Amino acid sequence: PVSAKPGGPDSDAPPEGLDNLVNIIKAESYVPKKIVDAPALFAVDHCFSIKGQGTVMTGTVLQGRIKIGDTLEIPSLGVSKKVKSMQMFRKGVESVAHGDRAGVCVTQFDPGLLERGIVCA
Questions:
Q1: Is pLDDT above 70 for 2?
Q2: Whole-model pTM?
Q3: Rounded CA gap, 31 and 119, in Å?
Q4: b/e sequence 74-88, b meaning 16+ C-beta within 10 Å
Q5: Cα separation of 5 and 64, whole Å?
Q6: What is the pLDDT of residues 10-28, one digit of tens each?
């Protein structure tokens, strides 16, 4: 079903099928449930160092919640690091939850060791 104006775009006639289209979209779409009670998983997109601050890992929280002071484990490297600070869209935040994209700053970590797609727990 497609919404169209009979008589063309300049016509005064109301669109046909618009209500039907809106109802179908509402029926077929949903808002995913946030999983915040599970252990935190953070998928890393990019990793870089900032002199005097530490190493920033950017990515998405796949489940759970991460707060400043939490310890992030990188199982593939066998390393655990404490979260020093976090930002979402260039604003400092205290915590991030499932579905959030964020930059997480940790100290004393070589960004060259981390590749895109590595998951931190």
A1: no
A2: 0.72
A3: 24
A4: beeeebebebbbbee
A5: 47
A6: 777 777 788 888 999 999 9
Q: Are 104 and 117 in contact (CB under 8 A)?
A: no
Is residue 74 within 8 A of residue 114, CB to CB? The reply is yes
Angle at 43 between CA 42 and CA 47, to 5 degrees: 105
Q: Which helix (H) or strand (E) holds 52?
A: none
Residue 105, pLDDT above cutoff 60: yes
d(CA 17, CA 3): 5
Q: Distances from the Cα of 94 to the Cαs of 30, 59, 67, 84, 115, in angstroms?
A: 28, 16, 6, 10, 25
In order of 25, 36, 64, 87, the CA distances from 33 in angstroms are: 19, 9, 12, 23
